[in-house]
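Our consortium's second objective concerns turning raw sequence data into structural hypotheses that experimental partners can test. To show how far this objective has progressed, the report includes one record in full. It was chosen at random from the queue rather than selected for favorable results. The single chain below, 542 residues long, was entered without modification.
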Amino acid sequence: MKKNLKQKLLIIIGVLVVFLYGAFFGFDPPQLGGGQPLLSQLTQHIHLGLDLQGGVHLILQVKVKEAVGTETDNTLARIEQDLKTAKLTVSQVSKPDPVNNPQSIRIEGINPTQSSAVQSLIDSKYSNEYDISGGSDNSLNVTMKPNIEKALDDKTVQNTIEVIRDRVDSLGVNEPIIQQYGLGDNQILVELPGISDIDRVRSIITSTARLEIHAVVGGPYPDEQAALASVGGALPSDDEMLHGSGSMATGSDADSVYVLQRIAIVSGTDFRSADPGTDSNTGQRTVHFTLTNEAGDKFWDYTSANVGHSMAVVLGGRVKEVANIESAIRDSGEIRGSFSTDEVTILSKMLRTGALPASINYLEDRTVGASLGADSIKQGVTAAVVGVLLVMVFMLIYYRGSGINADLALFLNLVILLGFMGFSGATLTLPGIAGVILTIGMGVDSNVLIFERIREEMRAGKAPSAAVDQGFAHAWTTILDTHVTTIVSAAILFLFGSGPVKGFAVTLTFGLAANLFTAVYVSRVIFDTHVNNLKAGEVVSI
């Protein structure tokens, strides 16, 4: 029966043109006359992974105890405010061991006549998240529940991943890998293809940039002994000692010691925006920041009530500036200092993207060299080319004229796969090249199923057109089953695998989808065209 082949041929040509364009140009318009060579265009639009082009590999561990400490600091401040509002008298609300047990708060010196009222107040407001137990000395212990602490640990890790992702975007990295690593260790895996300056990456990713403003209790002191002497020899639990110069304007980093209130007036999460700039009078580089509405109101209340007192700007755990409050301040301010251009850019970026919820430890950091990537590319491409050529030669020898059919379908399959990667911006990794090679094998396997079935029909004495019809009809179910089951396996690898494994799953999945088109639709059109041109008595070369 005469087939409508013209329309089908136009569809195949259209698919070929579209995916050739995708492989070499992606979504960018072609540059004719003075544009890049085609090979350069191809490599530009198909992004290479860390194992192919080199880059930075980091494993980080989040100090989740710091986030727990910050949360209980906020709870402590709320408890103090609630007790004050209810006019209930206690001698102290503190954290007995803020370093080793940041989850514990202790309320001491409760007025015996108000003991039940204090217990009732704390139970009603904090029992959902904290275990509350009474002591024998008119005190209460308020301890974060283990499940709440675990949820906060997990949230801290996820928030850290999001902040790092925001910061990495500024590096312009294609397809970075930023994900949780390990089981229960609060670790993060960071892989940045194409980046070689590991020091710059570390400064951007792991700098906490925790800009905080604290009330100054005393200082500067020449050393910690003098600071302790000023507070009677023992540091109160509500205070802390920090080192620093106390003046960014002078550019000095002379080490002095300050005693500050431990709970910050303004912390890193209170910043809404931050932009680098330059003071028009002094020429100093500055960072102008704006607080959130809630933080601005809190800052206004504090500065209004403390005009004439001092407050310290703490950055990265060091006192960078001590300023006298001359008037109330609401929601904006400026950080001045002898910053370099990179420092002021990084600082503003850190504040703008949000401070990391906790500090980070380096467990592993290394750079994958370009030479390793070049070797990987050369070996992977060589393996792919050799594999394709051997398969093509085998198909030509074993299936004669029909082998040309299989080779054309195989070539179109590779074009579609490269075009998909160009359009999608997917990253090609070494396992991804393995996925391409496996796709070639699956494509040949589909052709073998079809060709062998056609041979069987021809041995049964059927005419060429009938043999082709029956061959494709009977092989279709088997081909579909094998491809669907493999795609399901690839989907599982994509959902639960790491970056390189995902690259393998992506190339394999789309390659298999392309196989269904080329091995069934394209091969069928080529066979139908050949059969229609056969003379009476001629058979299919297979």
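The partners drew two points from this record. The CA atoms of residues 7 and 13 lie 10 Å apart. The chain is about 50% helix and 20% strand. Both points have been shared with the crystallography group to help prioritize constructs.
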